Amino acid sequence: MTEKLYYQDSHRKEFQATVVSCEPYKEKYRIVLDQTAFFPEGGGQYADTGMLDDVNISDVHEKDGVIYHTADAPVEAGRKVTGRIRWEERFEKMQQHTGEHIVSGLVHKRFGYQNVGFHLGSDYCTMDFNGPITKEELREIEREANEAVFQNLEIQVLYPSKEELAGMEYRSKIEIEGQVRIVVVPGYDVCACCAPHVNKTGEIGMIKLVNMVNYKGGERITMLCGRRALRDYEKKEEGTKAISAMLCAKEYEVAEAVEHLKEEQASLKSQCATLRQKLLSYQAKEIVIAEEITAVFDPSLSGNLPREMMNLLLDRGAKICAVFAGSDEVGYRYVIGSRTEDVRPLSKKLNTAFEGRGGGKPEMVQGSMQGTERAIREMID
User: Fold this and answer.
1) Per residue in 266-299, pLDDT tens?
2) How many CB atoms lie within 10 A of CB 107?
3) Nearest CA-CA partner of 137 in 74, 209, 216, 40
4) Is the pTM of this model over 0.85?
């Protein structure tokens, strides 16, 4: 059994220990200490990392009460070592995990929902609740959660007896054998949990619920606390300031300015479409109608314009009209049509000659091909 120093003091950054064993593990080594402040992966929270003297610890796992430290190099058994956890990383995790307790406790108290999934990653934290929550309700939960932070409540850790536990109301996602560890945020949550937490809610700094999506009939909520919330704010502030400067609008008016810009863009897009249709008509009138196949090459045609150009030329009396949009370098997208002829044989001929693909009905085919305008015209002629 490894003595778990992180339960004695969750803020302990450094400790001394004796190496009990060290053995090869995959391409690294697995070290067991008589005591450790490294928290192993568990409860939805990934493991601490850090150093044992000058040896890097990249992962930590627990099995049958023994904690295994995954190390980049071996350390001989019996040696006294100094362990140092990466404190900023650990503190961020404690901020997120304690924040999760507050939010989950509030959701459970208000809606009766359970937190059925919790993942604390290196840059985000998600909570899965087994029931629907509206955006307004989520904002209210966020405000209440931050009130718990502002009150700077002392986090309590209890180890109740079986008799005491039987009379307690607490949240737990799984059945627990042996001694149950209960983490209490007074007035907000009582939950069975194996992870270290901050000592007081004020250390969380801030709780921000940044996203929510429907998930398995409930909600998956993404949360940022403390330093992560601050970094998120700084990044969004930087983006908002840049947009504000580009739009010559106040920061709080950026959304309105973008909406106005969007409306202007829609209006201009509509005007451009109208003008493009007029220009297409003028262009079609200038094209000479060939006796058999009228071929048009125009790199400026996009969207439905090749098809519209084809119809305009068919209206003018073209027997078969083939419109090619693109260039010799990138290839051509084509549409071929006729009011009297089956154009599929022509499409098949072009596809075979120019690595093309496509097809359609007797009166119209569409596709794409590789080739030069000169070679395509020669084949059509």
Assistant:
1) 999 999 989 988 999 999 999 999 989 999 999 9
2) 24
3) 209
4) no
DSSP letter (8 states) at residue 40:
P
Phi, psi (deg, nearest 5) at residue 234 = -60, -40
Residues 154 and 162 sit within 8 Å (Cβ to Cβ): no
Assess contact for 217 and 224: CB atoms under 8 A: no
Q: What are the φ/ψ torsions at residue 343 (nearest 5 degrees)?
A: -90, 0
Per-residue CA distances from 363 to 314, 343, 356 (Å): 11, 6, 19
Using an 8 Å Cβ cutoff, are 336 and 319 in contact?
no
Structure tokens at 103: 């939010």
Rg of the chain in Å (alpha carbons): 34
CA–CA distances in Å: residue 55 to residues 62, 71, 175 = 20, 7, 37
Convert the pLDDT of each residue in 230-242 to its tens digit.
999 999 999 999 9
The length of the chain in residues reads 381
139-171: b or e for each residue (b if 16 or more CB lie within 10 Å)? eebbebbbebbeeebebeeeeeeeeebeeeebb
DSSP helix, strand, coil percent of the chain (3-state; round to 5)? 35, 30, 30
Task: Express each pLDDT in 106-147 by its tens digit.
Answer: 999 999 999 999 999 888 899 999 999 999 999 999 999 999
157-171 pLDDT tens trace: 999 998 998 889 999
